[in-house]
Amino acid sequence: MRRLIAIMFLVAALAMLLTACNDDEPEPTATATTAPVSVEGGGLPADALEVANARGLTPQDIRAALKTYVPSGKMDEYYLFTSGGQSGSVIVIGVPSMRILKNIAVFTPESWQGYGYGEVGSEAVLDGGNVDGTKIRMGDTHHPALSETNGDYDGQWLFINDKASARVAVVDLRDFETKQIVKDPNLISNHGSAFVPPNTEYVIQSSQYGTPLGWEYAPISEYKEKYRGLITMYKFDREKGRIDLENSFSIEIPPYWQDLCDAGKLVSDGWAFCNSFNTELATGGVESGNPPFEAGVSQRDMDYMHIFNWKKAAEVAEQAGKTEVMNGMRVIRIPTAVEEGILFLAPEPKSPHGVDVTPDGKYLTVAGKLDPHVTIYSFDKIMKAIEGGNWTKDEFGIPVLDFDEVMLTQVELGLGPLHTQYDGQGNAYTSLFLDSAIAKWSLGGEDPAGYKLLEKLPVQYNVGHIAAAEGDTVSPDGQYLVALNKWSVDRFLSVGPLKPQNEQLLDIGSDTMSVIYDMPMGIGEPHYAQMIKADKIKAWEVYPETGWDPIAQAPSEFATLAGEERIERDGNNVTIFMTSIRSHLTPEHVTLNQGDNVTWHITNIETAPDATHGFDLGGQNLSLSIEPGETATFQFVAEHDGTYAYYCTEFCSALHLEMMGYMFVEP
Ligand code: CUK
Ligand code: CUA
User: Fold this and answer.
1) Which of the listed residues 160, 482, 485, 527 should we mutate to test ligand 1's pocket, taking the one with most ligand atoms within 8 A of CB?
2) Is 330 in the pocket of ligand 1 (CB under 6 A)?
3) How is the beta sheet containing 177-183 ordered, strand by strand?
């Protein structure tokens, strides 16, 4: 009975709260039953309690449900962009509902979007990431980075790395499609990527596993001499919306197995920071009686944070004789980086994973996954230590700053600290992988005593990254935090041995944290995510003009309007100009000769939002998704004679099944 009263009280209180915050919502337009609930008006359904009890819901469950439920027709407050790990994609989710809005194919073909299934534009994007001519159609996406202006997400671009083959991709947030993939010509794996400085002048990437530059062959016995890491600063051309490889450059670094990076902001803008976890230079070989990597890389109590001045490096890269061009990329070698005061190291305990700059840019949190503490560094102290010159050198000649000079304090949080986010109200949140918990702790500014563990909340289970609302900006929102849990174990209906990940939504807007939603992520392994206010994204409803090339983001030279449909033949080169509109494809008959080279353009001449037409042609490895206004192109050689049906793959209208045609290939 007491529980029932508690539930009743809570439902009533929340109902009041809901009406209070919904003042600015548009008036409901449907029937009277859609009016907002109010306690006085008695708008609460009579059976609400009955439902709660029948489903065994606790007051906390009801609160969580009310916090996350987004009614049909209402919109989420935030977009969450999570990487899909080895699915090679980026997954877009609405917060707080945690509804999946879209899977953006990036490094991996995806037939629903018509990405990489014969459409010339997207095939070219994927081919941009080929490695030595090998088509790579797998990607391991880890860290999405939203473009920033003055340290704030601007909602224009999204960058994402592929750890497996050291590539970075650019997604345009006007249409949520991948526009470019670039391959680092000197690295074969990356990890500290993608990160951007406050004005997105560059996209930052650091290596993970040391390899000889250009991944040339060198025996592992020459690890120290020949193997290296790299920081690559990919120049981003906002005007073109592309990474400009010609104006990009790299900085050579030791083969320390760099991990995560973060860019400075405000006071620390111009600098960036990357962790490392194999300063032991372990080379493995367990099968020959050597210590295995996991032990070899964990011997030292301290590893090194790489501290580099990318603004100065960009100037140095422009000067004659200061770089070496390797496979077309300018590389600042270690001695030059040291001489120019670009590169420093600072000790950090012990095999750290994340480094995260505070919103004011003044402090850095390093989480050592084999150390129960987080270590807080002061940027000001780092600058003073650099000026002071009281450093030693590592075995590659790079200055190593004195730990006590740069470290501000350490906070003991628990087991396996990995990644940290901030809420803009002076609090930090760190994921504890081994504890399966989120630690909330306070930032103390210059006062070491102000850094304190406040609260720990269990999550389910093995949490990796966490993402707070606007978490990497100079002014985070707090309010929501998503825990990207690696294991879901007992949280969902079983779907066999491969289980989904668990993205848990936490309410961090109240005094104590609480889990308010469990979202199974069954289409990829999210590593990192970023959460942006929904109103910052200005996505197009339809393409701006009929006959649009979405890769160039400009009118297509192959645009075909109604009445312009035709088939042109020049010897055995045949070009088809087709239109699609509810509910026909024009032309409906295409007659070819066996052996013809066929180029086929289709323009979706619809102007209504959501009026997408797909296209498939039996016998070809083809799938197009042609959005309203888009012109898509595919090419093939008509090798086999026969009669083929082509059709629209998207159920677009009542007469969708009639939206078809025949292709005849005459022997
Ligand atoms: S990583 Cu996966 S949990 Cu690649 Cu940033 Cu930490
Ligand atoms: Cu167009 Cu179905």
Assistant:
1) 527
2) no
3) 145-149, 152-162, 167-172, 177-183
Mean pLDDT of 308-320: 98
Q: Which two tokens stand for residue 201?
A: 């002048």
What are the angstrom distances between the C-alpha of 487 and each of 65, 187, 433, 500?
23, 31, 11, 7
Q: What is the DSSP letter of 362?
A: S
d(CA 105, CA 88): 7
134-151 burial code (b ≥16 CB/10 A, e <16) = eebeebbbbbbbbbbeeb
Residues near 26 by beta carbon (within 8 Å), at least 6 away in sequence: none
Segment 15-25 shows an average pLDDT of: 41
Q: Which of 43, 46, 21 is nearest to 32 (CA)?
A: 43
The pick from 206, 355, 418 for probing ligand 1's pocket by mutation, whose C-beta has the most ligand atoms within 8 angstroms, reads 418
DSSP state of 156: E
- 22 pLDDT exceeds 90? no
Name the residue among 538, 544, 450, 466 with its Cα closest to residue 502.
466
Determine contact, residues 440/513, Cβ cutoff 8 Å.
yes
- Kindly give, in sequence order, each residue whose CB lies less than 8 Å from that of residue 36, ignoring residues fewer than 6 positions away: 18, 19, 22, 25, 28, 43
